[in-house]
Structures are given as C-alpha cells and as structure tokens.
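WARN retry 2 of 3 for item q-0093 after timeout on previous attempt; input resubmitted unchanged.
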Amino acid sequence: MCGIAGIFDTQNQAPIETSVLEKMNGSQFHRGPDEGSTFIEGPIGFAHRRLSIIDVSSGQQPLINAQRSAAIVFNGEIYNFMEIREELINAGFTFTTHSDTEVILQAWAAWGKECVTKLRGMFAFAIWDFAQHTLFIARDRLGIKPLYYAQLANGQFIFGSELKVLEQHPLLDRQIDPLAVEDYFSFGYIPEPRTIYKQVHKLEPGFHLTIKAGEYQPQLQQYWQASFAEQLTQSSDDIQEELIHRLKEAVDIRLISEVPLGAFLSGGVDSSAIVALMSEIQGDKPVNTCSIGFDVKNYNETEFADMVVDRYKTNHQVEIVGSNDFDLIDKLANMYDEPFADSSAIPTYRVCEVAKKRVTVCLSGDGGDELFAGYRRHKWHMLEEKVRGYVPKAIRSPLFNLLGNYYPKMDWAPKFLRAKSTFQALQREALEAYMHTISLIPEARRNALYSDSFKKELAGYNSLNVFKRHADNFDSEDPLALIQFLDMKTYLPGDILTKVDRASMAHSLEVRVPILDHKFLEWANKIPSHHKLHGSNGKAIFKSSLESHLPHDVLYRDKMGFGVPISNWFRGPLKDKLRQRVLNGKLMDTGIFDPATLTNMVNGHINGTQENGQMLWAMMMFESFLERAK
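OK item q-0093 returned
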C-alpha cells in the first residue's frame, strides 16, 4: 500500500518543479513511511511513498523499465501477478524485480490499455509512455484504492492518492462546487466523480484515463461494469458449496505478504466469515485478529467476536473504547480532506490503530452487505416495492402524499410509530424512494436548510441525478439488484472504501477486502435475489453457506452496525461545541444555509424534541472542512 502523485505538463511549457512535486509527495507520508522518491524527465514528474509489503528489498518506485520506454507509480496489490509474470516471461519479457509493480509495467508494454483487464486486485497506477508521450492512469473495478486528478489553467495535469496531495500545488483552484455540497448533504459523502472542489475529480472505479502531450482534457474510458444480467440456475445447496469455495479462494490469494498479517473481527457475519476461512486455510497457524469494544452495550459486539475467537483459537487483541471517544473530531477533516459524515470513521480509525500494533496487513469483511443484500434498507425497500405493486399509482401517490404530509414526525417515539418517512417513500417511484431512504438529509429538509441564494447556484440540480445516471447503465429488471447496483456505484466507493482507506493509511496499515474480489463479485451478482433476501432475512444464502463454519448466534443475531452515540454526545458533552461550531462558526459565513433552520435544528435536538444527530454531525464535519481549508 502506498501513495502516488504526479505532474504532467501537457503543453511542455516549463520543467516540472521538484519542490512542488516533493511537497505533494510529503503530504501523503502516512501512506508510505518506508521509502519515498521522485522521478522527473521532460514534461513528466512522478512521486511515490512506499509501505513495503511484497518484494520488500527491491520493489522501489517510481519504476522505469529496462528499455526506458515506460515508467510507473502504483498503489495497491495485484494478487495474480505471478500468473501474469509467467505469461509475460513465456512471451519473451524479462524482469529485474519480484514485484507486482514491474508486472504491470511489462503488461503495459505487452497489451497497452488492455493490461488493466488482466489485473486481479486493488490498484491505482499511472504509467508514462516515453515514445507515445502519453500518461495512462487506471483505478480498480470497485474503487478500493483512490485517485484524484485536476487539469490546471497552466496546462499541467496533476494527480494523487488523496485530495491533500493536489492541494499542495500552488495553482490549484479551491472553488467549492455547489453540486458537491448538495451531494454531500444528500449522501453524507461526495460520490464519484465529483469532489468538493470544482477543478478536482475522482477517477471513477472501473475507469482509466489517457492524456497526451498537447491535449488539455483526459480521455476517460470505462473498462469494467458490475452486471446482474445473468442468473444462476443451480440448487441452493450447490450455490452454497460454490460460494464457500470461491470466497475461500479469494481469501487465500490475499494471504501473500512479507510482513505480519491479520484480520479485523467485529463479531459481525462478514468479518467472522473471513476469519473462519483464513483459519481453515492456515491450519495450525493461528490468525491474528483484533477488535474494539465499547463501554456502551448497544454498541458493543465483543461477545460475538469472542465466539469466533474461541472456535478458531485466534491470536486475538481487543481494546475497549469509551463512549465519549470524540477527540478525533478535529482529526477527521485532515484525514478525509473533503466533507465526510460517516461517524463510524471514529471506530474504524480506532480498530486500525489497534491492528497496526501487531500487523501491517489486515483482511476485512467489507462488501458483504452490498453483495448479499444485508442492509435493513434493502428489506424495507423491497417491502415498499410490494406495496407499490399492490396499490395503483393513481391512488398511491395522493394517499401516501396526504399521510406523509400530515403524519407527525415523532423523532422521540419508538421506531414502529415513526411512519412518516415510510409514507413519504411510498408516494414515490422506486429510484426516488430509495434516494429518500438513504438520504442523510431528505430533500424537503435540504430545501429548508439551504439559503435562497444557494438554491439559485444549484439551478435545479438534485442529487437524485447521481442515481439516475447509474440506473441508466443497469442491465437487469430485478428491483433488489437495482439498489444493490446503486450501492456498489455510490455508497461502497464513496463511503465504505473511502473510510477504510483513510483510516488504515493514517496508521500505515494495508487493508485487503476478499469479498470485493471482482471475480467473486461477478459470480455473486448472478445469485437470484430470493436467495439473498429471503423474507426478512438479508444475506440468507451467505449465512446458510456459513452454518458449518460459524456459531448460530453470530450468523442469525440482529445486525448492530459500527457506530458511535453521536445523538447523546450532542445532548451532553458536545452540546456547547455543537452550538459554537454550527451556529457561531464558519457555516453561517458561507451563504449556503438558512440561519433560522440551522438554529432550529440545533435547539430542537438538544432539547430532545427532534432527532437530528446525523444531520448535525454532517454540519460539524462540513464546518471542520471549512476550518481546514481556510
């Protein structure tokens, strides 16, 4: 795992400034504390920070091939690099290292852009082709590894592993994108390809870009897309058997490492599955596992992690985090660079902190909910779809619109009485309904939150456009598969994988995600939906396939999640900081928000008449970004 950066003067007007490139690279020291170096020749400058995992002795970057026809900087791991290496050797290529980096570079020489289709792993890399005066950049299929880029006014094209890398360039325009602000308060993060800055973009998962000398804009091309078009016809028993076989293979190829390796173990189904399969593969060698617990029972899963530890005799480490662990709030803005409102970033940071004490590589269970329909929202959406199917639209829309408008919000009441959001969802069509369900701040409340002047800047833009763009490329009629697809395109790369990448890299820890192996995912997408969501049981086929590997109580308990008690914090120890940051900080100076609405949100939450915890967390994270960016 590493950090990469680069500058390409597409107009070749001036040499690359070494000091600027080194400053860009220095800002991502945490991603690779083992080594750092730069390469500048003509219009191209590459920089790299290295966290040594494979070929520790000779895998330095930037790497230039023996023919000096191409150079590369690479972040990630290619798990099938030995197979590709053998294929290239048989084709006459030679190697001077044992690294996966050199394999990518020689694969470029052999296959050009198509080299990316050969790679199995997580990656973001840039290749400079000396003869063609071309820069080629690619990102892995699911977006496990990040890549940011910008075209500057002076003709320079810059890129890096984190937004802070690009911020080091003195010519970067930091003008905030109002559409990104709308996306942030809708999703709680800014989905690809936008960033908080108009001038900066994220390279989307499954895409590569090419830019040549003399050009001003890169050419973007999608090389991979998740598909749900095909359906398996095997029996449930056969699918379960193949699921375990395929997942175990995905785990196995991720165990190669020249440094200590372990696994996160939260006590949930996904991380427990990974630990179980690791243990079976490693045999008598105990798996290194780590967990964090909370001193509040509703957030603590350690008793379920202990069941897995006892069964597989793992070498386990657990640390308890206090329920008032909010000291990281001001650190989060510097870790994520742009506004990021997932409060589970705090426990994710802590578990990475614990893991790094013993290992340099950790396997995680991320992706299980997306692949196998494990979120509660999947179940509720499909129940709503049934109602939408039973009640004609001519009746449904006015009926549920009336109920949604007049049913009280009742944030203070037990969940079964909080039907307002459900009524609001039922009046909508599927895509808009799912957007309403997942929105951090629903559309009506965003409209109240924004100032009139900011609404004019949006010019009618609504974050539903993000879903519509992706839905246009969906290749099935299955309504459950559609929302899984939307999660894979938005929530997975924008939230889950971003959170894990930044939290792990803050501790120079590499995290590998077997469930998101693209070959496993392509197969899992073919499993019929009724095997994934069976009645009210999400991840049904995944759980049943693991029954001989994990305790029943781990598999079939209620999903807990990985959160922190922010609502309690804002009514207790953080209420003064909340008032200061939201009502008296930089938010009021932006012109984005309506002051009366903000004041009502804060006071209503603190006095207990409203439940605005997640929304206020998003506001504080936005204010932290503004403070950082000043």
